[in-house]
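G.,

No rush on this.
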Amino acid sequence: MTRDLRRLCAALMCIPFMTLAAGCPPKDGTARNDRAGATPGETGGAETHPEVRGLDPAAVLSRTEMGTGLVIEELKLGDGDPVWPGGVVKAHIRAWAVANARMFDDTYAKNAPVDIALRNAIQGIADGVPGMRTGGKRRLHIPPLMGYRFTAIRGEDDQVLVPQASPLIIEIEVVEIRPARFVTSEDSSVTDRPPEQAPPR
């Protein structure tokens, strides 16, 4: 094998298979998303969307590609006990929709971390947060089937902030692990509601 061919093969192996986008919108639903994995043609990535600004690739400590299409990038390690599946966290979030290259939420700018019940959250967050510790920070690349599959998120002026089924990029920093009693309702800022079914005639 020639030197040039070896270099080409090495470059192709470095191309990520799935990198997706994230975000945390206003309250817009109560039911959890389906636990379905992404399928070919239903994922998109930050690397293939350079118009998505505000991401710092140098901050990534490690990167894990899950079989569902979810990509977890570790940005900062925390301390203490880990977040358990289905737990509740108080967290800061920055969120982007890849489909329109738009940051649609930033709790740092508002100085207002949010409580997130993982059992009610979109699947990308429910699967991407467990294992984090207080003070830890991750970037989640979330495929459409694990994000807002059924819902377009709109702002106060009814402008679409997150197109339905857009890949998402969510940076999440755990401020505190909360007792489950702090969030007891199905009301959450990171849920996705399936379409209403027409009643039988």
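When you get to it, here's the other one too:
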Amino acid sequence: MIASLFGAAVIGIALGVLGSGGSILTIPVLVFGLGVSEATAIASSLVIVGAISAVGTAMAAQRGLVVARCLILFGLPGVVGAAGGGLLAPLAPEWIQMGVFTALVVAAAWITARASVVMSATPGCGPWPRAAAAGAGIGALTGFVGVGGGFLLVPALLRFGGLGLERAVGTSLALIALNCAVGLAGQLIGPAPGLLPPVTLALFVGMGVAGMIAGRHLGRFLPAKAVRVAFIALLAIIAVYTLWHTLVIASG
């Protein structure tokens, strides 16, 4: 349990520094650290990451780092996508959800690496059709596999919005909180997904918020490129371990 709570702090740090990585880290911590089922981990991650991101959004908004136009262009289509993904999630076998999750981890590493060198020079979060399509797709993934989508949102906000890393992170946290809330609601409409006990959820959220506060301060002193390289390496490790667990241990 102590190791899992340490993992919750790391989740918060990732969200604070990168505006992403929360659910990508939460699901392995819950599945491999606490030994809960994939379905419970996916639903619980929406609660944990959503709550941590909501606190981070309030912190970012105080500093003027949440861009309203991007929030609307990505957020409204994301609500529709997250609701649809949440409705489908309880109907899908767990191995399919974890397989999609593993593929997303690999995609996250590639997109994060690409976003570190590809930036948009055009401000304003446009063109809107591409932003809306990205928001809807990321929202659907949020509801289906319990990921907040920040690892996709931050590169998209950098690429389409030209926001700069700090504003992309702040806006991403707001979108993650929104997507998690809608995705969880979609799951609760269908068969009950099962959640961790409230006390356990509160402990994870508390440790995550503490980690986020530390991450926000830490991010001011770390080179963005070095942080992204470390995150890519972490994603690679998670992808390999999750794939191995899904194919070897779960099948055996």
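The first helix runs from residue 2 to 18. The chain has one domain: 2-249.

Enjoy the weekend,
O.
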